[in-house]
Write a structure and sequence with these properties.
Elements (H helix, E strand, L loop, with lengths): L2 E8 L5 H16 L4 E8 L6 E8 L2 H9 L1 H10 L8 E5 L5
Antiparallel strand pairs: 1-3, 1-4, 2-3
Helix pairs in contact: 1-3
């Protein structure tokens, strides 16, 4: 079964465009990674600086590998101190229907 993750981000005032630009590069590179099924960034209607990243991965190995890649490291460096609050990541579990 694949792994689903949602991550909430809130850009600091005046930092949204910088964060979005960094995310654009990350999203394009990550979607080409083996094991990445979904990697989509959304803005939130309720908060001008809010963003939500929706991810789906084949397995934990794909996630672990993603975290070591140059484009991921570059993204993390580019957005360091550009969020008003720490990111909140949630790993989702399916509800049997």
């Amino acid at each position: 079964m694949s792994i689903h993750i949602i991550v909430d981000f809130v850009a600091a005032p005046g930092e949204k465009q910088t964060v979005v630009d960094a995310f654009t590069d990350l999203v394009l590179a990550t979607r080409a990674e083996p094991g990445c099924l979904i990697f989509d960034l959304y803005t939130t209607a309720a908060d001008d600086n809010g963003m939500i990243l929706i991810e789906e991965w084949d397995d934990q190995n794909a996630i672990d590998h993603h975290m070591t890649l140059g484009h991921t490291v570059k993204f993390l460096q580019a957005v360091e101190d550009r969020f008003s609050t720490p990111a909140v990541a949630r790993r989702l579990e399916p509800v049997p229907a």
